[in-house]
Specification:
Strand order of the largest sheet: 2-6-7-1-5-4-3
Shape: elongated
Radius of gyration: 26 Å
Structural class: alpha+beta
Largest sheet: 7 strands, antiparallel
Distance between the termini: 36 Å
Number of helices: 11
Order of helices and strands: EHHHEEEEHEEEEEHHHEHHHEEEH
Length: 366
C-alpha cells in the first residue's frame, strides 16, 4: 500500500529565499504553460512543450527538467478539467523528481533552485525514520504557514491478512469518540477540553483585536487540529491492533452525509462540528489495510434505536445520550455499546464470507 511521509525542511535564510523564489517562478511558469495550451486547445505534454518550453527557460529562468515539470503540472490539471484555464498559486507545490533532488544521508536533501543546488537540512519523527530507506522517485515540495515540507509517497508491504473469526462493531460518537462491541470506549474528554479552551481564547483575542491578539490567533491556528489528529491516530491504532489480536473484522457505520442527517442542539453545534468523523474513519481504513484486518461499512440507520438482544426498534428505547433500555425485553446497556453491537451484527449479515469457514454460523451472545 502507499503511504505519504512528511519531512520538515530547516533551510538557512538564504536557502529559504531561494526556495520561495523558485516556487514562485515555477508556478508562474505552470500558469503560463496552461494559458498557452488553453488558448490553442491543446492539452498534452508534447503539444504544450513544443509551444512554450523555450519561453519557460528564458523568461522564468527554469532549468530544463523544471520547465518540463511545470508543463506537467498544467497537463495534470487539464486531465481533470479542460473547460477552465488554471492559475496556480505562487506558493503551490513543486514536484521534484530524481533529476531535481538528491538524498544526502538521513538529515539532508539536495534541491535544485533558480540559483543552483542547495543542500537543505531536514527533520522528522521516529515514525518517518523507519521508512527512509524506501524513499525513491519524486516528492512534492510544499509551503505551509511559512514552513517548507517534503511529501514523499512510498510503497510499504501489507501484513498477511488475518482470518477473522468474528466482527467487532465500532460506534463513532462525540462524548465517546469510539466504542467497540466488546465494551472498550475511547473517550473524547481530552479533545473537548482542548476545543473549549481554544474557543474561549479565540473569542477573547478576537474581541481584543490588537496587533498582539492577532499574532496570538495566528499562532493558535492549527494547534487544535494537530491535537485532534494525534488523538484520532492513537484511537485508530489501538482499535486496529485490538481487532488483529482478537481475530476480528471491523464493522463501521457508513457516515456519508451524517452532518446532513443529524439534528444537533444549538449549544452542541460547536462540539459536533469540531470533531472530524471523516479523519478517524480514514485513519481506521488505512491502518486496517496495512495490518491485514478486514473492514467494511454498514448502514447505520436505527443502530441507536435497535435492541442488540431482541432486535426491537423504537426511538423511545434510547432514553438519553448514554442510556439504552429496550421497551420489549427490558435489556439495558450503554447506548454506544448497544449501537456497536448492532454494527457487529450487521457486519456479519452483510458479509458472512469474511469469516473463517468454521465460523460461518457465528452467533452473538450479548
Amino acid at each position: 500500500m502507499k503511504l505519504t511521509l512528511q519531512l520538515k525542511l530547516i533551510p538557512t535564510i538564504e536557502q529559504y529565499t531561494a526556495l520561495l523564489e523558485t516556487m514562485h517562478a515555477f508556478n508562474a511558469a505552470a500558469s503560463y504553460a496552461a494559458q498557452v495550451g488553453f488558448a490553442d486547445h491543446v492539452f498534452s505534454q508534447q503539444a504544450i512543450h513544443r509551444r512554450c518550453y523555450r519561453a519557460l527557460r528564458d523568461h522564468f529562468e527554469l532549468s530544463s527538467q523544471m520547465a518540463v515539470r511545470a508543463i506537467g503540472k498544467a497537463v495534470e490539471t487539464f486531465r481533470r478539467d479542460k473547460k477552465t484555464c488554471p492559475v496556480f498559486r505562487p506558493d503551490g507545490a513543486i514536484t521534484y523528481d530524481e533529476r531535481l533532488l538528491g538524498w544526502k544521508g538521513p538529515a539532508h536533501v539536495s534541491l535544485l533552485t533558480l540559483h543552483g543546488r542547495e543542500v537543505v537540512a531536514m527533520i522528522y519523527g521516529e515514525y518517518q525514520a523507519g521508512f527512509l530507506q524506501r524513499l525513491k522517485g519524486q516528492v512534492d515540495l510544499v509551503y505551509h504557514n511559512g514552513t517548507f515540507y517534503l511529501y514523499a509517497t512510498i510503497e510499504i508491504p501489507e501484513d498477511t491478512p488475518i482470518e477473522p473469526t468474528r466482527f467487532l462493531g465500532v460506534d463513532l460518537g462525540i462524548v465517546n469518540l469510539a466504542t467497540d462491541s466488546d465494551g472498550n470506549s475511547y473517550t473524547g474528554e481530552a479533545l473537548e477540553v482542548v476545543r473549549a479552551r481554544a474557543a474561549t481564547a479565540r473569542q477573547t483575542f478576537q474581541s481584543t483585536n490588537t496587533k498582539g491578539a492577532r499574532r496570538r490567533l495566528k499562532k493558535m491556528a492549527g494547534k487544535q487540529a494537530n491535537f485532534q489528529r494525534d488523538v484520532n491516530h492513537t484511537i485508530s491504532k489501538r482499535l486496529v491492533q485490538y481487532a488483529k489480536d482478537t481475530k476480528a473484522a471491523l464493522s463501521l457505520e457508513n457516515l456519508t452525509g451524517i452532518r446532513d442527517r443529524m439534528t444537533v442542539r444549538v449549544r452542541q453545534r460547536a462540539r459536533h462540528h469540531n470533531w472530524s468523523f471523516r479523519q478517524l474513519r480514514e485513519f481506521l481504513t488505512y491502518k486496517a489495510q496495512r495490518a491485514g484486518v478486514p473492514l467494511l461499512f454498514v448502514d447505520p440507520r436505527n443502530t441507536s434505536r435497535t435492541c442488540s438482544r431482541c432486535g426491537f426498534v423504537d426511538k423511545r428505547n434510547r432514553r438519553s445520550q448514554a442510556d439504552f433500555s429496550c421497551l420489549r425485553c427490558g435489556h439495558t446497556a450503554h447506548a454506544d455499546l448497544n449501537a456497536a453491537r448492532n454494527l457487529a451484527t450487521r457486519g456479519f449479515v452483510s458479509a458472512p464470507d469474511l469469516l473463517a469457514p468454521s465460523q460461518g454460523q457465528l452467533a452473538f451472545a450479548w
